[in-house]
Amino acid sequence: MVVCTATLIAMSRIKIPGQMKTYLLLFALFFSGCALAQNLKSGGKLKPEQANMDIRHYAITLDVDPAQKSINGFTEIDLNLKEGSDVLLFDLVNLLKVNKISVNGKQEKFTHENDLIRITTASPLAAGPTKVRIDYGGKPGESERAPWIGGFTWAKDSLGNPWVAITCQGEGAKIYFPCKDHPSDEPNEGAALNITVPKGLYVAGPGLLKGTNTKGSKTTYNWKTNYTISNYCIVFNIGKYKVVSRPYTTVEGNKVPMEFYVLDYHAKKAPRHLDVFEQSARILEKYFGEYPWVKEKMAICETPHLGMEHQTLNAYGNEFRYQKMNGKDFDWLLHHEFGHEWWANKVTNVDWADMWIQEGICSYGDAMFYREVGGEEAYLKHMAQTARQTENKKPVVQGKDLDSDAVYIGDIYGKGAFFMHTLRYVIGDEIFFPTLKKLATDPQYTYDNFVNTDDVEKLFSTASSKNLKPLFDFYLRTINKLDVSVRQVDEKKFRVSATNFDMELPLEVNTDKGLQKITLTKGGTVVESASMPVIDPRVFYLKRVVYE
Q1: All domains of the chain, ordered by start, with CATH?
Q2: 147: cis peptide before it, omega within 30°?
Q3: How much is the pTM?
């Protein structure tokens, strides 16, 4: 596969307090327009033919040949048609060849153009259950810069063994299996992966391993998840893995296998890494509720790329590089990607336009490590740094029905996280933290039920008995900063007012008498001080301060 050179969209740096090293984190994307490149996008305006389909289950059966960099097999799709139709529409990259298709056991005609499979049935299909089998194969697109540019990574470990990974968040799972590629529809009954590889290699997949079968020189691994799962998490990894496992008891008392699929020559590092993993799990459960997939497993898998939030199988490629905070080891990548088990995998945005929900709130979960291990001051320093890195070149929420390419900017991470920091300050901890946990645990917002920005706003507005829509709109749908005017009106008096936002907000002001809290309004509040007041010294707002 030929891929265009990646274009850097945004970069964010996380600095660990007390450490000199700064770590590059996340954010690169590609632009379309390069001949022969994969250049796929996920989501966008839902096509009518696909809006008529409710996907219930995917079963992917593939023979994977790392030497030839090829896949061959079939995918079975169980779906419900909302209305009768003679057309079914699935996404699959044209790099792969479709050999035949059957619908409810009967072979049907199809076209495969522009990365879309259009099936026209000989007789109209009735509303209700439909089963589709699509046989296909070939050489899928390769990732030039995983995970940011999706595709297959056909790598080798340091001993020369095949090491294979799949990443497809931006492109969608259509890079390797036929699917309905839209964030608004996940298979409610889960997915099965039956992956055959050369004997001696191990396949790690989502959910639970139901069995293996070796015939001659090949072994098939049968993985199954019964939970709803996003398309880009229906992936597998292949390598000379050793499974290092121990039980984890959740905050609700349920026991879950905690597993690490680690390259066999790194197995000695696994126990310490599981300690770090458990530490992150404890913190995330405290703020977001019980680990979401208690009936299956919590796992990480060593990959040749940096990482990705694959449900029950988080990709990990940070090479055991820990930082210290108050004597505790911390792996920012492991913590962040594992946080996506709640934000993205359990709480899922219905439209890529609302991607800040999964990326921004997950990044706020990163800040909770600072708060728990380093204390409130470490948390505040982290959020102040996040504020300084906010670019404000595009709104975090740019509209509706957007594709993954359009929405993927750096501020969905940092500014999204900082907005949660501001929201916490505005409504107070006693409301904020229980409401955040409600968002992560209430069936109304989780698993099969997707959310958008308005849903989040209404939840917090109701909980706080405040109309928070102006604050949500200001932070998320504009690139404005809060403009604060400080005007001296007497020798020791200053009027502090908002000039571009008409909603009462709490505001800290540092005066010669120390830190005090006032109410910021357009009309202004008079502050007495022998020295010039310092506005919002602990940085709860993205702001500009004008002294007159």
Answers
A1: 12-33+347-476 (1.10.390.10), 43-149+163-239 (2.60.40.1730), 482-547 (2.60.40.1910)
A2: yes
A3: 0.92
